[in-house]
Amino acid sequence: MNMIMQNINRKWKAGIAVLGLVAIMTGCNDDFMDRYPTTTISPEVFFNNVEDLQTYTNSFYSLLSAPIADLGSDNLAHHNSGSEILEIMGGGVTSQNAKVWSWTTLRNINFFLENYGRVKGAKAEDVNHYVGIAKFFRARFYIDKVNKYSDVPWYSGTMETSDTELLHKKQDSRALVVDSIMADLEYAVEHVKAAGHKSTVTKWAALAQLAQFALQEGTYRKYHDYLGLKASANGFLEKAVSASEKIIKEGGFQISTAGGVDRAYRELFISQNLQANPETILFIDYDKDLGRMRNAHTVLDYEWALSQNLMESYLMKDGSRFTDQPNFKTKNIDEVFVNRDPRFAQTFMKPGFQAVGTAAPHRLKPTLGGYNQIKFYPEVSDMIAWESAYTDAFVFRYAEILLIFAEAKAELGTLISQADLDKSVNLLRGRVGMPKMELGTAVDATLQAYYNNATGSNLGLILEIRRERRVELACEGQRQSDVFRWEVGEHLADLQQGIYVKALGLMDVTGDGKVDIAILESSKATDPIKHLTPEELKAISLYYLKDDNGNNTSIYLQNGNSGHIMFTAARDKVRRFDNPKHYYYPVANSELVLDGSHLVQTIYW
Questions:
Q1: Is the pLDDT of residue 26 over 70?
Q2: Range of the domain at 240
Q3: CATH code, 439
């Protein structure tokens, strides 16, 4: 295995070198329309044989990413660095200061697609395999653009600076660009080989991308009526079903249960060998010996914490709803973990959790909300440092395919059966010992109020599948996209909450029966801790709602001296979600005024 990975690393580095050379040779102008044109590098340098195609396409793998948090979504209570959507809702993004479009990646891909035919004497299936990989990455490039702008110019080739009309053309319609994306993915599915290392694109990865995008576009068109594309929504949902079902029937993937009910889910995200995992479709291979590492320890108490809203989504162990529990809003940090879906304690930090290299239980930080994330947190000491983790990362895993299959079928209405649930979401529930989802699931009033535009003859099932998706894919970077495609973006402006605090004063947050922290009105309001000896006081972490000058600190309590932790910045800087404007990003004014530009501003901006 090490020899295989060394070979992949060598090819990966060669690909990066090729990409860098192409980038250098294609110019450095940062303006939108000047970024795209002319490639002056000689194609003969790269396109002599199939090995050259492999080397060139290996450069595209650096474009893959694997998020470890749901930034900009209702799954986070607080995030210190903010996010683009928070800036947009707060009025911090305008067409005057918007970032310019970048087309460098697309140019490099199209350069390949224009020149691969120079290879002579190779088998067509070997050449087409790499063409399919290039089209897979072009599809991903344009998926990002459509998600951000809706209408964008579609370019299928590189251009010279003399191609004035093309360089300055108006955006193509969302419908045209999406059809082009689907055509690229369908080509990849047809021509990329099924066999291969799971850190490289295979037929199954192409099918996974097709299924994911088809579900996204189908639900986007269904719920965003103003686009005028609702009539075509079911066609995309049907493609999501067929692509995911093909993976289910023919891909040979399985839900991983290694580690048992209380560990199997967590083990997925701290693995050093996803190649061997039966759930892996495509992954990013991090390796200490090869110098490829990332951040993962930062999920715990670094910049963000999870939300009360996400916490409430997890069911009880018996399958009943947490939100049906008596006083569910006022349960403390110990009580919320009692008899819950095992994925909850494998995602959220349970009192008593010990960070790597420490002897004492980890204390939560009220300043982040208190619901710490442990999903992705490594269990090896030398990974607890900046850019030092070598745990592998999923790009596509089988669990998501099962969720796509179930959701697309549910959104289509009468097509879904109990057998469909049993071969999809119930495999995920089975991994953690949760009861099965049943076809006749009643509508949960809490979910219905949250997703108040959801429609369908089986609404209760649609809502429960959304719950299952939120829980299973928590912290994997998909939540904002889900909220967007379901057209419930207004929830991104909600004032999120952290843990419940029954009263100001001392708290046991580690579950050992001893007080660990104190939340006080100010450093002068010491009555709740005045009985502590100086030695006892040293062992307590103190947090204040007011500083020594009487100013608000970063947190406050919902009811003043009790309630959920909330965040001063979110309260004082009002954010508003403007529907449908804020589902999109503006085109920078600097691009609109270029000489000869026919671009128009993003819809609703």
A1: no
A2: 195-285+392-476
A3: 1.25.40.390
